[in-house]
Each structure stands twice: as structure tokens, then as C-alpha cells.
Design a protein that fits this description.
The complex is a heterodimer of chains A (96) and B (175). Chain A has 96 residues and is mostly helical. In chain A, 70% of the residues lie in helices and 0% in strands. Chain A has one domain. Chain A has five helices and no strands. The longest helix of chain A has 21 residues. Chain A starts with 6 loop residues before the first helix and ends with a helix. The longest helix of chain B has 25 residues. In chain B, helix 1 crosses helix 2, helix 2 crosses helix 3 and helix 2 crosses helix 6. The termini of chain B are far apart. Classes of the chains: A mainly alpha (96), B mainly alpha (175).
């Protein structure tokens, strides 16, 4: 397809390597900021919700403990299950 | 030889790994910038702005890249789209003002003449020539990056080369 003596073809092929310079740094600076890690926020909300549910169903002495431990986030998942179970139990008792 | 493009992309997608993305930018910046310099008819500043936009768009769209095409082909397609968007917003002047440029040797000056001559081509001819002579694309990949069949790429390529020849060869003879 190309003439071996085609000067235009030779010129088009002669694309030089472009030094990076500061280009990569510029691109990295233009990237959107890291998305906040949502896992921690979800755990925190779940923990607080579990604490509030526990408080509503188990009475005041345990309420503070549930809210406090639930708000630590990572323990929230564990306590969410407990609180849901307690809530379900309370609902059953109330239904009877 | 470092990790492949696919491995680096997987690290970016899995863990927001910016070092992996920087490695991709370093690896492909020259090819993308060279293509955009030709599309922008030698306007290096505009070409670098669009190159940066190309990589930022790639970052945002990386989760959608399924690996069906090579990463470089996909990247060139983004570059062409970035240029087309820009050209629609602000059509370039028929002839660019070269402005103040550093003195250059004959080869560099010839390259600048070639890039400036792209201003006289139709957009599809610019795209065909810029992609077909890109640093690491086959004609099939160039056609894929342009979104055309290979035959269409070759048609625009021949027309564009003929126009460049008419514009540049007499200058070479006169020099």
C-alpha cells in the first residue's frame, strides 16, 4: 500500500518519542479525589441503629452500652444481629 | 518488563491504585500526545490539554473497559473523541499561527511543517493519518479506534496523504 520512496510516508512514520516531562504528574493531579471509604460509614450507621434499637427494646441500662459499642463501627455488625434479635423478641412479646 | 496493561488496569479497578495508573500514563503518554499533536495540527499546548483529558476520562471509564480491545486502542479512541468534542466546540482556524517557537534543526522543522499541514485536512483524514501512523497501532486497531471499517480508514488515509503530498512536496523541492 505504501511506496518505499514516499517521503510523506517516511515523514508520517517518523513520530518521535515525547519525553514525559511533567505530564504524568499533571494527569495524576487532575484525577478526581479518592472516594471516601463508605464501608466504615455504613458500619457506623448500622452500629448506631443497632444501639438505638437495642435501647428501645432492652431498656435504659443496656441502651448506653449498645449505642457506645455500636458507634465503634466494626463492632456494629455484631451488635446489629443481637439488637435485631432482641427487637424481634420484643415484637413477639408485644404481639402476644 | 513490568506488569501488563491489563494487570495495571485490574489493580486500578480493584483498589484505586494510583501508582498503577501513573505507570499506564507514563507508558502511553508519548503515543497519545503524538496523535493529538497531529489532530491539533501542531498546537502542542492544546494537544497536551486534550491528552490530559484523555487520561482523566480513561480513569473514570476504566471499570467499563472489558479488555475486548487492547488498552492502547481504547485509549486512542478516547483521545479521538476528546479531540472531536473540542473541535465541535471551537473549530480550529484553517491555518494556525505558529507563534514564537524555538529554533529547530531541519528534522524538527519538517515535523512541525507536517503537523501544521494537518490543518488543511478534513477531520476524518486527520483521524485516519494520525491513528494509522500512531506509535503502536496496527491498521485494524486504528480502524477500531476510529470506529470505522478498515476499508474506510484506508480510503481516508489515501486521500489525506495525497493532500499532504500536494502541500508539502513542492516546499521540499524549493528548499
Amino acid at each position: 500500500m505504501t511506496d518505499p520512496h514516499d517521503t510523506i510516508d517516511d515523514a508520517l512514520r517518523g513520530s518521535p518519542y515525547l519525553d514525559d516531562g511533567n505530564f504524568t504528574n499533571g494527569v495524576m493531579g487532575a484525577l478526581p479525589p479518592r472516594a471516601p471509604r463508605r464501608r466504615g460509614a455504613v458500619l457506623l450507621v448500622a452500629g448506631v441503629a443497632a444501639g438505638l434499637l437495642g435501647a428501645a427494646t432492652l431498656g435504659e441500662p443496656l441502651a448506653a452500652a449498645f449505642v457506645a459499642i455500636g458507634a465503634t463501627g466494626t463492632a456494629g455488625v455484631l451488635f446489629l444481629g443481637t439488637a435485631l434479635a432482641a427487637g424481634a423478641g420484643a415484637l413477639l412479646r408485644w404481639a402476644r | 518488563m513490568g506488569p501488563s496493561d491489563a494487570e495495571l488496569c485490574a489493580r486500578v479497578v480493584a483498589s484505586d491504585d494510583r501508582h498503577a495508573f501513573a505507570a499506564l500514563v507514563r507508558r502511553h503518554q508519548s503515543a497519545v500526545r503524538a496523535v493529538l499533536r497531529r489532530l491539533c495540527a501542531g498546537d502542542a499546548a492544546l494537544a497536551d490539554d486534550l491528552s490530559q483529558e484523555t487520561f482523566v476520562r480513561a480513569w473514570r471509564g476504566l471499570r467499563g473497559w472489558r479488555g475486548g480491545a487492547r488498552f492502547s486502542t481504547w485509549l486512542h479512541r478516547i483521545a479521538v473523541n476528546a479531540w472531536l468534542s473540542q473541535a465541535r466546540k471551537a473549530p480550529p482556524p484553517a491555518v494556525l499561527d505558529p507563534g514564537v517557537q524555538e529554533p529547530a534543526d531541519g528534522r524538527v522543522e519538517a515535523r512541525r511543517d507536517l503537523e501544521r499541514a494537518f490543518a488543511f485536512l478534513r477531520p476524518e483524514e486527520r483521524i485516519a493519518l494520525a491513528l494509522a501512523y500512531a506509535q503502536d497501532l496496527t491498521h485494524e486497531e486504528a480502524a477500531e479506534a476510529a470506529g470505522w471499517p478498515v476499508g474506510t480508514l484506508k480510503t481516508h488515509l489515501l486521500r489525506g496523504k495525497e493532500k499532504l503530498r500536494q502541500r508539502l512536496v513542492p516546499q521540499e523541492g524549493a528548499a
